[in-house]
Amino acid sequence: MSLSEARTIWWNNGLWIIDQTKLPGSVNNINIHSLKALIQAIKTLQIRGAPALGAAGAYGIALAAYFSKSHNAQDLLQELEWAGSRIRSARPTAVNLSWGVDRTLRAVMNVETVEEIKEASLREAECIADEDIRINKAIGRNGSKLLEDGDNVLTHCNAGRLACVGWGTALGVIRSAVEVGKDIHVYACETRPLNQGSRLTAWELAQDGIEVTLICDSASGSLMRKRCIDKAIVGADRITKDVVFNKIGTYSHAVLAKAHNIPFYVAAPLSSFDLNHDEAAVCVEERDASELSILGDVRLAPGGVEIFNPAFDATPLELITAMITERGVFKPPLMPII
Amino acid sequence: MSLSEARTIWWNNGLWIIDQTKLPGSVNNINIHSLKALIQAIKTLQIRGAPALGAAGAYGIALAAYFSKSHNAQDLLQELEWAGSRIRSARPTAVNLSWGVDRTLRAVMNVETVEEIKEASLREAECIADEDIRINKAIGRNGSKLLEDGDNVLTHCNAGRLACVGWGTALGVIRSAVEVGKDIHVYACETRPLNQGSRLTAWELAQDGIEVTLICDSASGSLMRKRCIDKAIVGADRITKDVVFNKIGTYSHAVLAKAHNIPFYVAAPLSSFDLNHDEAAVCVEERDASELSILGDVRLAPGGVEIFNPAFDATPLELITAMITERGVFKPPLMPII
Q1: Quick one: how far is CA A260 from the chain centroid?
Q2: What would the pLDDT profile of B263-303 be if each residue is shown by its tens digit?
Q3: How many pairs of residues across A and B have Cβ atoms under 8 Å apart?
Q4: Strand pairing partners for A186?
Q5: CB atoms inside a 10 Å sphere around CB B337
Q6: A61 φ, ψ to 5°?
Q7: What is the pLDDT of residues B198-239, one digit of tens each?
Q8: Looking at the predicted structure, is the pLDDT value of residue A1 above 50?
């Protein structure tokens, strides 16, 4: 199995993930030995990315079942409902986390024995994980037609295999284009404050031998002005009927792309769409100030200074040239029927 | 002397600077004991900011004279010419460095004795340093009229007292507005990769009790969309007849400000104007890749990954609502006569 085929989250006598907070320094696979540990892993971004969180939500239910001491199905199902609500609240913005939890809970709802619930929840989680890779490869195939040989493509954050079970969404499109022989060069924004661009995107593209240049987030405008960027592709944490929620900075890149007449694509599975809601209904997670004020042993900002650190921003659909999904490419306001 | 009156560079039986690479952790005043040490301090950004570099260029000539062992005026002047060319090349983009060197060299050109050259070069450097503060206070007075009570003002990088001998240009405007009783809240962009926004701007505003909120560079667009920002003010490293060179990211903020109908101001002394040249004539300094890949003991990007790290970008004048100088406020394409 090549590195690009490796999974970000998998089951092997228990739940395993790659600890993404340790990349690119070291590739640590860690065993998630309790529901509490999974929730902690989600909160600290040891596992992150909307599609990966979908699988994490599903595996979380399987994990709760696996470790349960309940002796009857009724008690176990109640326990899993409670586990589900704890998992859902670990991160509020990405819709996939709830989606993975809910789908796995539905799969066991009418199962009658403890043993069968344990098996059925794991089966559903494994099914979601397998599906994720198939879906991302379909997104990749659909999106790769939008990229031309020689394109310079801007991306923000990490919507790669590390944000999914495998292959990736935005980076999956790039992988699929490279797979069919197109020469693609990626500009990866470092993505402050947690540097998913430098730590994860640059790492996974370099692993796959895809040409990548790392830049500061604020350099995208200047590169667009100098005609160094042909297209931009990002992932999504949640797509409502009016906006795309994605990593803070996405909106700035989208406005800049529009101003320079550069196509701006969003690649996401249908499980990231939440078309019953609009922007106002979604809570944008604010993360700890220390993410901007301290890095390793270096103090970047004076103690006590006010810091505003939203994890996401909202990009109106009219700034998005097209949405790339497993079901095809949609030009907003046209949206997939889900 | 209050902290906000303290100078960034000064002469006291030799040349002293605040080591800006140590802020906000500690306030280290260091004695610059040779021309080589000054050039190193400029290259490593222990001293930085266009107006401060003007004074550093001037003091550099005084320093070279001070330490010279030349016994006749002719030899000393040759030595100072050579020192000037070394200082000028320490950083290529900010025009003030050359301006400070050239002005001090001109002041000693016709001086006839070694002792008088030493005195005259130091006198000229002290004069430039004193002038810098007077000029910045004039910029502040002129610019403060553009700010209204209650304004939320975005700034990028550090165009504060630490970028000058004192008071500041962009932050000088904010200081002057606060001094006349206006309530101003500043959004400081952290300014990757060297975090002058978090390390310097947040620090000096907090020292002065001016309300400041630190944000990621990429969050400016989202804040503008949410109507949290009323105005933007930045400094400049060089203003040519067509563009403003300033810290990487300035152009992105300017395009975003235009898209959201937010005034975008540049505050700079006339010594930063270089109206005989255009964008194409200016070399944009590219800095070391390690500024993006390593921070303290943390590796942010995998070794060997390609990194593009320009220190500056160019913002066309049409994106600038007005230039704030010591001689008044100019709306491009109108430019000060210098």
Answers
A1: 27
A2: 999 999 999 999 999 999 999 999 999 999 999 999 999 99
A3: 197
A4: A153, A212
A5: 9
A6: -65, -45
A7: 999 999 999 999 999 999 999 999 999 999 999 999 999 999
A8: no
Q: Say if the Cβ atoms of B219 and A249 lie within 8 Å.
A: yes
Using DSSP, state whether B150 is helix, strand or coil. coil
- For B137, phi then psi, to 5°, come to -70, -35
Q: Which residue of A has its CA nearest to B195?
A: A300
Query: Which residues, other chains included, contact B268 with Cβ-Cβ below 8 Å and sequence gap of 6+?
Result: B50, B139, B169, B235, B236, B239, B244, B323, B324, B325
Please report, for residues A110, A286, A322, B230, the alpha-carbon distance to residue A299 in angstroms, rounded to integers and kept in the order given.
53, 20, 41, 29
Total number of residues shown for chain A: 338
Please report the domains of chain A, with CATH numbers, ordered by start residue. Answer: 9-137 (1.20.120.420), 146-330 (3.40.50.10470)
Question: Is A262 an interface residue toward B (CB < 8 Å)?
Answer: no
Neighbouring C-beta atoms of residue A78, cutoff 10 Å = 11
B249 and A CB contact within 8 Å: yes
pLDDT at residue number B2: 53
Chain centroid to Cα B83, Å, comes to 22
Please tell me which residue in B132, B208, B217, B237 is annotated as part of the active site.
Answer: B237
The closest alpha carbon to B186, from B215, B222, B226, B225, belongs to B215
Assembly ipTM: 0.94
Rounded Cα–Cα distance for residues A79 and A82 (Å): 5
Signed CA dihedral, A190, A191, A192, A198: sign only: negative
Q: What is the pLDDT of residues A260-303, one digit of tens each?
A: 999 999 999 999 999 999 999 999 999 999 999 999 999 999 99
What pLDDT was estimated at residue B1? 45
> What's the rounded Cα separation, in Å, for the pair B217 and B220?
6
